[in-house]
Amino acid sequence: MAVQKAPREGFSEALIRLGHQHEDLVVLDADCAKSNMTNFFKDQFPNRFFNVGISECDLVGTAAGLAIGGKIPFANAYANFLTGRAYDQMRISVCYSNNNVKIVGHNAGTSAAQEGATHLPLEDISLMRSLPRMTVIVPADSLEMEKAVEAAYYHEGPVYLRVGKLPVPIVTKKEDRFQIGKAIKYRDGNDVTLISTGIMLDETFKAAEALANKGIQADVLHIHTIKPIDVEAIATSAAKTKRVVTIEEHSIIGGLGSAVAEVLSEHCPVPLKRIGTQDRFGVSGKMHELLDFFELRAANITATAEKLVDSALIK
Amino acid sequence: MQLASERKEYLQELTKTIRRHIVKMTHHAGSGHPGGSLSATELLTDLFFEHMNVNPNEPDWEERDIFFLSKGHCTPVYYSVLAEKGFFPVEELMTFRDVDGRLHGHPCGEHIPGVDASSGSLGQGLSLANGVAMAAKLDGKPRRAYVMIGDGESQEGQVWEAAMTTAHFNLDNVCAIIDWNKIQLDDYVENIKGMKDFKAKWEAFGWHVIEIDGHNLEEVHSAFEQAKTVKGKPTAILAHTVKGKGISFMENTHKWHGLAPNDEELELALKELV
Ligand SMILES: Cc1ncc(C[n+]2csc(CCOP(=O)(O)OP(=O)(O)O)c2C)c(N)n1
């Protein structure tokens, strides 16, 4: 069994490590410092931490100002309120002004759990992806999160980083090379391409194994950077397998599924199935219940991939 | 109208029942927000049982008064009051936050009888109340719009955009209740982003302000009565409260903002509520 760890823990640890190395790194939060684990950064660097209270628009604007003032701010809040409410501040004060602000959306996806629909961010990737200049990163686990935080710091320009609250298995490896904009190939196969983002990598690995047991060999691509997306890796794999399934803990509208559909339609049109949440709001439930509820399990991926392979054979 | 003594006794018992629901519901779910629910208990109980013109058998009755829980995380007290008032069965409270239930962590305007709008993203309720009040004025109806706002929530800019709207349009049929428990999620409001002179702020925005002890049922009751008689401007009831009120170990700490009691803590809490 893989070790379980909350992505927010990896986030918090990496932030503190970078904080020791770089004086210009500052952190902002909007009254969720305990929950977002930015309070540990505050303990170490009280002068470089600003809790602006329950004011997400003000948070993002202030972060943009700090960037203009020569700092590298990480602005933290729950993903839904941050991307929904402060969208215009990100659009104008951050992206259009090209300010070097790192936007960190917490409580991501099903990790908002029992808080329910208002708190379940299922549209944040879609919103962030539409902003010119915004880089969108969705790490798979706590270990990859640490690499992503570092990469975000060194990247010049706006970044959106999606961080989950609850423990998930660590499925990536220390030696996996993290490079913004580059997909990671985890498995070779000729029959179907499975493309996942974020914490769905775990279920995707399980699905690939189940498919192999049925004689179907999957190519597995992990897309930690949704934007800019790795066109080459996706098109190359699709050209080989001729069918693609995308898997994300987010709406199929505007997220990974949409991004991959855009790539395929222009570069390698092959059949695509998108697994993710449908065009609906969430409900309250424990995280594992929500993954079942939204049909984001390995069994769902396996069934979808099988069907896609079968339908291609019949033709 | 003063609160008659037998009504006061009745309400006092009811607030105890509601506090028991609050701790049981959050214990059942293993999550949820007891602190800000316990601070709002007297305010919401008196409002729904003594002032709001509503009909639980006909939740969408067109003449009804409307209430918005702008601090949407305080569903434990809100659902409890609605259930005790008869909008849905009291037993349903123990499905709080269940994946197959309708009593979600934050109120859903679509599915729950008595709830008119979804909330949980702080700062949005007063604008809704303004809209309802404008519609009532257009229709020449005596309907009133109530909204409960947190003191931490008042850091959201929209609260003040809306407060200007209420006063500008002379919406005297709007009554805002501010649960001034001095604590938000991370810490005391004063330590995060202080309100400075909170009362003067509301007054400067053109509101009639009534400052009360939000746990004193008589003061709560007469504040709502007075609000109904104020003409030409909206009323803000600034209610001094204690976060976690009624359960000693939950009182006056941010620790119990969003934490559920375990078995042992539930037992201790219920002992204090007999
Ligand atoms: C827009 C938005 N930002 C952040 C949150 C997360 N959050 C939920 S409750 C809360 C603190 C609220 O404090 P207050 O308004 O004082 O409520 P109370 O003390 O009465 O519970 C926060 C930050 C949220 N629900 N909505």
From TrEMBL, chain A:
Record key words, sorted: Thiamine pyrophosphate
Domain Transketolase-like pyrimidine-binding: 5-170
CDD domains on file: TPP_PYR_DXS_TK_like
UniProt-listed SUPFAM superfamilies: Thiamin diphosphate-binding fold (THDP-binding), TK C-terminal domain-like
Keyword Hydrolase listed: no
Pfam families: Transket_pyr, Transketolase_C
UniProt-listed SMART domains: Transket_pyr (SM00861)
Cofactor(s) the protein needs: thiamine diphosphate
Domain of life of the native organism: Bacteria
Family from the record: Belongs to the transketolase family.
Protein name listed in UniProt: Transketolase family protein
UniProtKB/TrEMBL annotation, chain B:
PROSITE patterns the UniProt entry points to: TRANSKETOLASE_1 (PS00801)
Domain of life (superkingdom): Bacteria
One Pfam family cited in the UniProt record for this chain: Transketolase_N
UniProt domain Transketolase N-terminal: residue ranges: 13-268
Keywords assigned by UniProt, alphabetized: Metal-binding, Thiamine pyrophosphate, Transferase
Gene Ontology MF: a single term: transferase activity
Essential cofactor(s): thiamine diphosphate
SUPFAM superfamilies xrefs: Thiamin diphosphate-binding fold (THDP-binding)
PANTHER family listed in its UniProt record: TRANSKETOLASE N-TERMINAL SECTION-RELATED
Family from the record: Belongs to the transketolase family.
Protein name: Transketolase
Record lineage: Bacteria, Bacillati, Bacillota, Bacilli, Bacillales
